[in-house]
Design goal:
The complex is a heterotrimer of chains A (292), B (304) and C (331). In chain A, 74% of the residues lie in helices and 1% in strands. The mean pLDDT of chain A is 86. In chain B, α1 crosses α12 and α6 packs antiparallel against α9. Chain B is mainly α and 304 residues long. Chain C is α/β, with parallel strands linked by helices and 331 residues long. Chain C is globular and about 65 Å long. Classes of the chains: A mainly alpha (292), B mainly alpha (304), C alpha/beta (331). At the B-C interface, loops of B face α3, β8 and α7 of C. β1 of chain A pairs antiparallel with β2 of chain C.
């Protein structure tokens, strides 16, 4: 009787072997991804570390590789971080608060939601073109820090809104309901209770969005930041350069030394990003403990 | 601090203040709508100007992209093809590996392994794209040229590989979320029937989470299409309609960057080609994003 | 001019020292502030970049920016009043002169160096010993059907020839096409066009069948990666060197390169100081980056032009060819 039926147990050994191979395949592929990251970081470090010293951080770019440094680029990037934060955080958090707490959840809110999801997926270079058309040409701001900061703010605004909304959503309804029960208005509830409670989540999201902004090159190229700049900006209307632009500039040159300088610039950029991300994680852990 | 009992919320002043704040927040919220409107308006306006000079059929079906020389030709197909080559190559690399990583993370990995691999993937996702361009030019291309001497310095293959690495975390993370959302009861039931882990994964879990997985593919592809810096540095600046990964090509995004590195002055046909190509890029990524959201909402299977 | 890193260090240091001493002697101790904006040719860029960097040592409070939009792109900005100085690897065109008159914008034409526009091939290219102007034209003219090296000259390999060159906004492009193909802007379009000469160097150095052209400075900085092609302009193959460019035997691809300054910008002290500094240090810095300095008399003539704000161009009168004797032009 058994010989006519093909039981599952007949080829069970083969099936289990297949499963084992599959598991090994998936594991191997995953570790390969980690391996690629390791190769990338090692490559960058090996190339760039010899250029990384105090002189590199405090010199302007130069046509001589041994004299060149990232001073103007690093300062430009720091300026951008501050200016982008000043513009995008208030607008982004306000929008998130509105959508979560104050809106009547009607058609208008739904329209905004769809809008934001789509804006998040628009390529950064399209934002660059818009920045060129509106800020550089339209408002006449030229190749200034302000143009750059406003363009990048538009770019990361959807990201901030989405992250803030997620953070606000995690605040338990009970907090809001308690406030309402005590007679608070929607705004009072939002401002005095929901916002402080969701603050760590919002902050994490904001920092991650900012770190995305300072790694972007294409929009800055579009608004014309690709020039030789050997000075520190002194105001928002000044010309500037930024770390990704300087890196791009050095990579584009054919001489080996400039490629190594680019690696050095990359290390600096990665350190800045790492610091920002570590700060985000640190704040999240600290404030989460507080709320427990 | 004003105590609630001291504040009579029926009082006009408080209601007026509330209204002011609500309105200003609403205005902030409309900025996002205004942004979309502005993007569409500007792209459409300049593209209209472009299409008054160049016939749409020439643009969409022309096979020669020579906008700046005399005689000029405005067929966008070579640029579109360049973008397609890069995206196709990147997807070929990233989809199997991303999915396999996601499966490993959600089905096989111990929590300890997860705690190592997940951050690694997040770091990979956070690396700026110009770094990937650097990596392509200084590591991938020389390596490939050792294996394939006829490979040009600027070529599509390096660009595709590097963009593939870049979108790998997107697929991996989103698919992992989708697979983990599948209830455990489904897995347990399949195991109870004597299925192996391979069969459980491929015949139960992945089909159950398929909507999320497919959405992640589409989002990753959309990201690859919009990728600029890596392809500008690695893939070259020659519009090329041939099917070859070994030669220099130009993507839509690389064209936009290349023309504006000269900081294109306003007005004139060169300026308008920027917007026509950008409009095409915008429409393609928009469609992909909308479709992926639609798939997520329509086909998500609810089990509990 | 192959320089080891040590040689570069020493020469760079010497130049730095002498320019600083020289500069601080010739410019009054007055610390100026303000901005000077340059843009334009990628050929002239290495000189402008060097001048800007040295000027920084003398006047650290003046901000100098240098863009690379190409000669044509730079002129568009210059004529729109967006920049103070345009780097140009060709004289101003009639079209641009008309636009300037229309907009009421003046320009002061200052030659800064000689360039021997160089034709280069890959280091592994063993068959090209020289190219005639006729062969160059055959390769580059619009509608050219040349696809392999064997199409250019019998006996050359059947390898595909891949072309690299500047884009349409480049003065080098204008000059090359006018000289080789007879009309400015007339070129076959199917080549890797990039305003960034560095990208061209990278492409050519990795491609065995490649051929490209750009300013001599970019060859000088990358001699280990590129092979220079002597050009036969009718008198036998001549390679661009200091001597041959200076005495005009490297023909027809020797050319002067310029900066154009807005006279109203000269009213600003920092711009005036910068332009004076530029002409004073042009000889030294031009040869450092790989170009040929002009005779002292020409630089003196240029300084006089700045002094009296002499407008207009020396070209386009009686169809003066571009490589005409500069001394005559400057008088």
């Amino acid at each position: 009787m058994n010989s006519d039926l093909k039981l599952a147990s007949d080829n069970i050994k083969a099936r289990h072997r297949k499963a084992k191979l599959f598991r090994m395949f998936c594991a191997g592929v995953t570790w390969m991804g980690a391996g690629l990251l390791a190769i990338l970081l090692i490559q960058v470090t090996v190339d760039g570390i010899k250029w990384l010293d105090y002189q590199f951080l405090t010199s302007f770019p130069s046509r001589f590789p041994y004299k060149a440094g990232v001073k103007s680029a690093l300062v430009g990037t720091l300026w951008l971080i501050v200016m982008i934060a000043m513009v995008s955080i208030p607008i982004g958090v306000a929008t998130a608060l509105y959508l979560e707490e104050l809106s009547r959840k009607g058609k208008f809110a739904k329209l905004i939601e769809i809008n934001i999801s789509n804006l998040a997926g628009v390529p950064s270079i399209v934002y660059g073109i818009i920045g060129l058309a509106i800020f550089v040409r339209g408002l006449g701001l030229e190749r200034s820090l302000l143009s750059g900061a406003l363009t990048m703010s538009l770019l990361i605004l959807p990201v901030i809104i989405i992250a803030s909304r997620e953070a606000i959503k995690t605040v338990p309804m009970s907090i809001r309901q308690a406030a309402f029960a005590l007679g608070a208005t929607r705004w009072q509830t939002a401002w005095a209770h929901v916002l402080p409670a969701s603050f760590p989540g919002i902050l994490t999201g904001v920092i991650l969005a900012l770190s995305r902004a300072i790694g972007e090159t294409a929009p800055l190229i579009m608004i014309g930041a690709l020039t030789y700049v050997a000075f520190l900006p002194e105001g928002p209307m000044d010309s500037f350069t930024a770390l990704p632009i300087q890196i791009f500039n050095w990579v584009s040159r054919p001489q080996q030394e400039f490629h190594e300088l680019a690696a050095g610039g990359i290390i600096v950029l990665l350190i800045v990003l790492l610091t920002m991300n570590a700060t985000a994680i640190f704040i999240r852990q600290k404030t989460e403990k507080k709320l427990q | 601090m004003q105590l609630a009992r001291d504040v009579d919320i029926t009082k006009k002043k408080v209601r007026w203040g509330e209204w002011m704040i609500e309105s200003s927040l609403a205005i902030c919220a409309t900025i996002s709508v205004v942004t979309t409107a502005v993007i569409i308006f500007i792209l459409a306006k300049e593209s209209m100007g472009f299409f008054q000079v160049v016939a749409p059929t020439d643009f969409f079906f022309g096979t020669s992209w020579v906008p700046l020389f005399e005689p000029s030709s405005y067929g966008v197909l070579p640029l579109l093809w360049g973008t397609l080559l890069i995206t196709f190559g990147a997807a070929l690399f990233a989809i199997p590996t991303g999915l396999a990583s996601a499966i490993y993370l959600s089905e096989y990995a111990s929590p300890k392994t997860r705690s190592i691999v997940k951050p690694v993937l997040e770091v990979l996702a956070g690396i700026p794209t110009v770094v990937y361009g650097y990596f392509a030019l200084t590591f991938v291309t020389p390596l490939l040229r050792m294996l394939m001497p006829e490979l040009q310095v600027f070529n599509a293959l390096s660009g595709a590989i590097v963009v593939g690495i870049m979108i790998l975390p997107t697929i991996s993370t989103l698919s992992d979320n989708a697979l983990r959302a599948v209830p455990d009861s489904l897995r347990q039931g399949a195991y109870a029937l004597g299925a192996t882990s391979y069969e459980v994964t491929t015949r139960v879990v992945v089909p159950a989470g398929l909507s999320g997985v497919m959405a992640s593919f589409l989002l990753a592809i959309s990201r690859a299409i919009g990728e600029t810096m890596a392809v500008t540095l690695a893939a070259g600046a020659t519009p090329n309609l041939s099917f070859t990964f070994l030669e220099s090509i130009q993507t839509m995004t690389a064209y936009i960057v290349q023309v504006s590195m000269g900081d294109t002055p306003a007005g004139g046909i060169a300026y308008q080609t920027l917007f026509a190509v950008a409009a095409l890029l915008f429409v393609i990524t928009l469609i992909l994003n909308i479709v992926s959201q639609w798939i997520l909402s329509k086909f998500r299977e609810e089990y509990e | 001019m192959i320089k080891s890193n040590f040689q570069r260090f020493v020469s760079g240091g010497l130049i730095f020292l002498s320019v600083t001493i020289f500069g601080s002697m010739s410019v009054s101790a007055e610390q100026l502030r303000g901005t000077v904006s340059l843009d334009g040719s990628s050929t002239v860029f290495p000189i402008s970049e060097a001048v800007a960097e040295e000027f920084l040592a003398v006047q650290p409070r003046v901000r100098v920016t240098v863009g690379v939009s190409g000669t044509g792109g730079g002129f568009k900005k210059f004529l729109a009043g967006e920049i103070d100085i345009n780097d140009a690897s060709r004289p101003i065109k009639m079209k641009e002169v008309d636009k300037a008159n229309e907009m009421g914008i003046g320009y002061i034409e200052l030659p800064v160096a000689y360039d021997g526009l160089s034709v280069v091939v890959n280091k592994k290219n063993t068959w090209v010993d020289h190219l005639t102007v006729a062969e160059l034209s055959k390769i580059w003219q619009p509608g050219s059907t040349v696809t392999n090296w064997s199409d250019v000259r019998a006996g050359w390999p059947e390898m595909k020839i891949r072309l690299y060159g500047p884009g349409t906004d480049s003065g080098t492009f204008d000059y090359f096409t006018e000289t080789i193909n007879g009309k400015s802007g007339a070129s076959r379009p199917d080549y890797t066009a990039n305003e960034d000469d560095n990208a061209l160097v990278q492409g050519i150095s990795g491609d065995e069948g490649s051929l490209g052209y750009f300013g001599y400075a970019y060859y000088a900085a990358n001699q280990d990666k590129l092979k220079l092609v002597p050009i036969d302009g009718g008198k036998g193959p001549i390679a661009p060197t200091q001597t041959t460019i200076n005495n005009g035997t490297y023909a027809p691809l020797s050319r002067p390169i310029f900066i154009y300054v807005r006279p109203d910008a000269l009213d600003r002290k920092e711009v005036r100081a910068f332009v004076d500094f530029y002409i004073d240090s042009a000889a030294m810095l031009a040869s450092e980056v790989g170009y040929i300095p002009l005779p002292d008399a020409v630089y003196a003539g240029a300084k006089k032009r700045i002094e009296v704000r002499e407008l207009g161009t020396a070209y386009h009168k009686d169809a003066t060819p571009v490589s005409a004797n500069l001394l005559d032009a400057i008088k």
